[in-house]
Amino acid sequence: MLAFYGLVEVCSDAALTSRDVLEAAGIEHELLDAGAARAQGIALPPGWAALRQPQAGVVLADRALAAFLDGIEVERRRVDSLDAVGADVVVVTAGAWVTRLVPDVPVRVTRETIAYFRHDGAPLASVVELDEATRHHAMYALHDPVHGVKAGAHHAGRRANPDEEEPADPGLVETIAAWVRERLPDVDPDPVGADSCIYTSTEDESFVIERRGRLVLGSACSGHGFKFAPAVGRRLADLALR
Q: The pTM is what?
């Protein structure tokens, strides 16, 4: 389910990286100079910092879902109102559709763009560029087993209706390609494909995990939340059994 290629954070100031948190937790990491970053396939602007965490990786979603569902029978039926569910406890993990069942959950739904690029040879480490103002992710890239690299602009899309399919935003594809050209010089910067996906998130990117009477809510778990699925599942189960 996991593939470990390492993670490299890049930003304008080493103090913005995860260095302090990793040091406090005793987790292996190292700061890279421009030469060491280039050896990882990353071009740093002058004066910028890079931090490498070698134990990071990516979750292979299809394999993870198969493992999560091993031996579990799944019944599918449409639910338009929780009043129609006659159970003592109802766990609601409806993703982008959660506010149709519980209107006041503080989530936003956006349509994001991702692009794919050719890269031959050994997989690159995942790369996250941090926004100096927010300290959150700005741009990212990770290994794609089909083309080589998948890249995107984090939270750059607009609010969206999850029932409406939309193609990738051409402007964002250009932005992503320009970043790949500048930051990942060993990757072919001409996209070989692009797609869009739905993000469901809160303003501070925290998760919604709470109980309201007979309802147990689990939301704001898009791609970044999927990686925490086992821990989130345990928390939701604990709330449901109280």
A: 0.90
